[in-house]
Amino acid sequence: MEANRFTKTLILTSVACLIVYYFPNSNEVNKFLYTESSYFSSEPNPSPPETESSLNGEEYWSTEEKELCNNPDVDKTWTRIDALCFAIRRGLELSKIEVISWSNPVLVVYRDMFTKKQIKGYSQVFKKSEVEPEKVFDQNGKLYISSTRIVNGSTTPASIHPEVQSIVDTANRLIPSMNFQYTEPVLGLSYLPGGHITVHHDFVEFDVEAPEEAFLDMGNRMTTFIISVEKADVGGATVFPSIKATVRPNPGDAFMWFNLLENQEIDNSAFHGGCPVLAGRKLITTIWLRSKGQHIFDTVEGKKQSFNARELLR
């Protein structure tokens, strides 16, 4: 009976199920597929000019990763028969979910999760924040500036900004299987032309004891949740080389993946990178959910295996 109720909450279609989100009139389907579909085009960024690159840190990007960033034809995840969309009613709100990868790693996109008012509100909060270059941890747990991570950021705590709290509350309502109470401070990241973050993992580990290990008091970064606030004119996608997937969200969209396995060890399939911005600016909001207080662990076996996206559809 419970399974039947769960099934009835889902509107399951093929990859082209985004039609369900937007078109009560099927006559508009053809126009949608060739102009607006997030799978077939999602207003793909123009191809970058064929000029010699002067990107700082380009040597850290492999040829395959560059192709995933710049060539939409390389990303074939939408052709997979298990790449599906769901529309789930949460109270009076409709959650539009695209499952790009069910496991190894879990990768899910939430379309139009946030209103234009929420996105504008966050943009204004970030504009007033003190922005500085982002740093990375070395093997001793110390922070330093690296050419592998050229991006400016600022924390925007929800406890201080009602606009940020609104975003957290929406995510908490529409993803009830995750607990947004245990997170790091909400982080805004601004990528200007030349800005990028090379392929890396969000799991935090230190080779030696360091004061920064107190950073892990709430557990490690279980999931990464990213909200698109402003889309770059050219470039700026997020790539997942292990599954040859590229996410190109529009403002108001969000996407999430798991950094941990069920036993809370690192999921090595979750390496990802923020592609170089070639024109315009990319602004995102990042929320790292910690493993502490996550009831999702009560619903899985705790084995050394990937989570499954089914857990996010409950």
UniProtKB/TrEMBL annotation:
Signal peptide stretch: none
Cofactors that this protein relies on: L-ascorbate
Key word Iron present: yes
Record domain Fe2OG dioxygenase: where: 170-291
A GO term, aspect molecular function: iron ion binding
PANTHER family (UniProt xref): FE2OG DIOXYGENASE DOMAIN-CONTAINING PROTEIN, PROLYL 4-HYDROXYLASE ALPHA SUBUNIT
Gene3D superfamilies attached to this UniProt entry: q2cbj1_9rhob like domain
Keywords from the UniProt entry: Dioxygenase, Iron, Metal-binding, Oxidoreductase, Vitamin C
Source organism: Caenorhabditis brenneri
GO cellular component labels: endoplasmic reticulum
Protein's name according to its UniProt entry: Fe2OG dioxygenase domain-containing protein
